[in-house]
Amino acid sequence: MNTDKIMTFLKSAYGKAFLFILGVLVVCTPLASSAPDGLERVAENLGAGEGESLFIAPLQDYLLNVGNEWLGTVLAGIVGIIIVVIVLYGLSKILVKK
Amino acid sequence: MHIPDGYLDLIIALIMYGIAIVFWAITAYKARDGISEEQVPLLGILTAGVFVAQMLNFPIAAGTSGHLLGATLLAIVLGPWATLICMTVIFVVQALIFGDGGITALGANFFNMGIIGAFVGYYIYKIIKKFIPDIKGKMIGAFVGGWASVVLGAIACGIEIGVSQIFPYGIELTVPAMVSWHILIGIGEGLITAVVIGYIAKVRPDLLKLPKMGMKEEEE
Hints:
CATH architecture of chain B: Orthogonal Bundle
Structural class of chain B: mainly alpha
Structural class of chain A: mainly alpha
Mean pLDDT of chain A: 90
Shape of chain B: globular
Oligomer: heterodimer
Mean pLDDT of chain B: 95
Number of strands of chain A: 0
Number of helices of chain B: 7
Low-confidence stretches of chain A: none
Largest sheet of chain A: none
Distance between the termini of chain A: 21 Å
Largest interface: A-B, 57 and 67 residues
Radius of gyration of chain A: 18 Å
Helix content of chain A: 55-70%
Distance between the termini of chain B: 33 Å
CATH class of chain B: Mainly Alpha
Number of domains of chain B: 1
Number of strands of chain B: 2
Strand content of chain B: under 5%
Shape of chain A: extended
Helix content of chain B: 55-70%
Order of helices and strands of chain A: HHHH
């Protein structure tokens, strides 16, 4: 993908949606609640322990260790977006009807 | 609502994987006609959006939060079968890369937060849209479908951990507790789903009329 293609994409409706999603990630990350979610709340109130992960994920808790939580979370989110989009792009090669 | 490793008995985890595999197999079958090329960027954008939304918890009450599940939202635009592809990618990436949701609980999480929303949420939306016209019907349908998908997912989750011996409490405690929180969390799901669908219906109504993978052609 060359720069022209990227620029064309960013100017399209999908490109704007993509930039909007990035904006939401950057702006909402520090505003997001770090309180336990519904299931974690139930487990905590009942007195059940936290689940034990079978392995340590590379970006556990959506955090890339760069010393700043906001930046670390935003970068982890971008990594996630890139992986999700690449996997879906690969799948679409199989899915698109010729 | 992501179940971590260590909350489900092996047999429950396997049963939920079994259900997931059945749906994956049907999805593969439904995918034989494929999707149109124009839908590829839509698929990518919506999945990226749901992935990000799942990272961003909104506060509910009493020090508790929730986040969008997004399966109903995806299903309204892409149809339930394509939604299962998107949600599978999200849950696998979350479990393997971000440690969100146990690898043993992937089948259960896919059922609770993917399959239920993709089908129940979608059909609730379709039924309501039939009776209430225009954007209003779409938004109400999206709200109710999204809300119901979260509450039903919470019931399923409560049953799965409740019947598991490894989780020290039974369904008489887990199901009511899960439902009570997710009645509230579901409102967030419903609002976000309704606003996004309302926006799409207003600015790009054509996107809601695209053919949906594996679904018979139907009138909008």
